[in-house]
Structure formats: C-alpha cells, structure tokens
UniProtKB/TrEMBL annotation:
Source species of the chain: marine sediment metagenome
Segments for region (Disordered): 166-192
Record's protein name: Uncharacterized protein
Keywords per UniProt: Membrane, Transmembrane, Transmembrane helix
Keyword Transmembrane: yes
TM helices/strands, residue ranges: 12-36, 137-161
Phylogenetic classification of the source organism: unclassified sequences, metagenomes, ecological metagenomes
Amino acid sequence: MGAIMEKIGREALIGFVVGLIVGLIIGLPILGWWVFPVQWYDADPFDLRQSSQEAYISMLADSYTLNTNVALARQRVEGWDPKDLGQVIGQLQATASDGAQVQRLDNLAAALGVRAEVVPPEPAVQPTTASTLVRRLVPILGIVVAAALVIAGVMVGISLLRERRREEPAKPGRRPPPVRQAAKPEDAGEPLGRFVASYSL
C-alpha cells in the first residue's frame, strides 16, 4: 500500500510541475498579453500618462475661469497628490504659449491651494539602436527561457522515471517449460516405417 501511495505522490508532483510550467507558458504570454490583454477603463486623472494629465488640468483651468466654482474644481482633482498636481501645473506654465493661459493656471493653483512648481523640461532622449535592439530581444529571450524551462521539466520527469525503475525490485518471471531431452537413436528401437521417394524424368 505504501508503494502505491509513493507512486501516486511522485506522479502527482510531476503532473503538478509540468502543469505549472505549461500554465505559465500558455497563461501569461499567450492569453495575458496577446489574446486577452489588460484594458484600463474608469481611471482617475492622476493615473493617466503625463500628456493626458496636462490636458485634463488645462481643461480644468479653462472651466474654472468660466464658472469660478472652487468646490467643483476641488472635486475634479480629488485624490490627486498636491505635490504632483503642482508639478503638472508648473509644467503647463513652463510650456504655455500665452500669458492668458499662465494666468488661468495661476488662478486654478490659488483656488486649489497648490503651489505650482516649475519643473525644467527634460531634454528629449532619442531612442538608440541598442534600446530598440533590447526591445526586440526581450520577447525572443522570453521564448528561449520558456523553452528551456519546458526542456528542463521534461528532463527532470525522465530522470525521475528512470530512478523509479531502478528502485523497483525485479519481478520474478515465469519459468520456461522444461525442455525434453531428445531420445538417443539407440534407445528409439525399430523405426515404424520407411519412406522411399522415386523420381522419374
């Protein structure tokens, strides 16, 4: 009974490991990235990328200039970190093309009680060939690593099977039936018959 439980335990462990590896290979890159990628919706403005945050604050400044409703303006930036909000307003002021836009942003910052921090614009970094090469190599390396994991899993499974076969005691086989000794010609006696063949051409 113990040998049966040990066999089931090993097979279950091998099945679990193989299932985990196959599940990771199929689940994450194939299903998670290609077939059913994550899609964001109902995001707050502070979770958006920088350009979308700037567009939102610019529209909020224009809206505040028209209606001067402080409560509504505060409701629209609720949950936004004041320091981050100040940096976005400062960035917009630094890149504003006219004085009226700067004034609208100043009025919004004063109404929200935020200090606009002018952040010097960072120089645009041109993508180098090395970075594009790395972007191309990452999926290839992922596939290679996944294949290596599958091969390693198969090799571990094969080695476990071989080890199990070595540990099993040899089963006694059936004995072959006893071979009859051929009778010696002198013990046989007189032959029962004699056949002679004749050929004619």
